[in-house]
Amino acid sequence: MTVTELGQALRRWRDRVSPDSAGMPAGGQRRAAGLRREELALLAGISVDYVTRLEQGRAANPSLQVVEALARALRLSGDERAHLFRLAGLARPGPDTVPGYITPSVQRLLDRLVGTPVGVSDAAMTLLVANPMYAALMGDQSSLRGFQRNGVWRNFTGAHTRARHTPEQRRAFEIGMVGELRTTLGRYPGDGRLRRLVAELRTRSERFAELWDAGVVGRLEASRKTIEHPQVGLLTLDCDLLRVEGNDLHILVYSAEPGTEDAEKLELISVLGTQSLAVRAP
Q: What percent of the chain has pLDDT over 70?
């Protein structure tokens, strides 16, 4: 397969994705109904120049992460995704690798829950895609790369978060994350990236190493979370974790009971925070 074939395929797939379907504003004059290169770059979290060079055949050997991001941004089917991997000269992730494929049904769910904060992570708790409301509530993470997109990494290495926990909540949350990660490693023992994540966390975080070496087991459960938003202040929301068993995806959904002050604050966040945001993916 040649790089030119890769570029032609990317262009065809980009042309068929409407801005509306990808959560992008459809205003302005357009020469085609599909996505602009700038919009694909934004959705995939890569530079416009790199998208251009890929389409023009001036760039070769995109990384696994870039190919996965392009497949999600272009909303490829399973067969199309496999074809993209072949064109890029990459082996399709095997059964021992944590899945990172956003199914069409999950994508449709994201499209419909536009007024609800929703984020989709893989089984290792790496954020794959978040809708604008999630970014408005929790902060825009589209510029994060590598392990910085992983929830376990961020929580155990002191990254900034808007979530606020009591000491008891923090302990339970840490145990749940470590237990979940251990279970995931048991399902995907051949995933080198997952093993590197665990090894580096044990080196960088004494607390993680303590819990990991203690052999804690378990999994994250639904909870209530207090969020400190920079514009509306504190609000407490239900945080439900929905699991897509077939593809091992985690869908995190935040909601508030109607008629409450927290619901009013969430509505205000939707007005303040989504005016300039679009759906983001790594």
A: 93
Q: What angle do CA 32, 281, 237 make, to 5 degrees?
A: 125
Using DSSP's 3-state secondary structure scheme, residue 86 falls into helix
Interatomic CA distance for residues 165 and 192, integer angstroms: 32
Residues 6 or more apart whose CB falls under 8 angstroms from that of 143 comprise 45
| Helix orientation angle between 64-73 and 78-87, rounded to the nearest 10 degrees | 140
φ and ψ of 243, to 5 deg:
-110, 130
Each residue's pLDDT tens digit, 84-136: 998 888 877 778 889 988 888 888 888 888 889 999 999 999 999 888 899 99
- Rounded CA gap, 149 and 133, in Å? 17
Whole-angstrom Cα distance, residue 126 to residue 184?
12
Beta pairing partners, 120: 129, 251
Q: How far apart are the first and last CA of the chain?
A: 25
Question: Within 13 Å of residue 139, how many CA atoms lie on the same side as its CB?
Answer: 13
Q: Looking at residues 65-81, what average pLDDT do you find?
A: 87
Which residue type occupies 243?
Answer: R
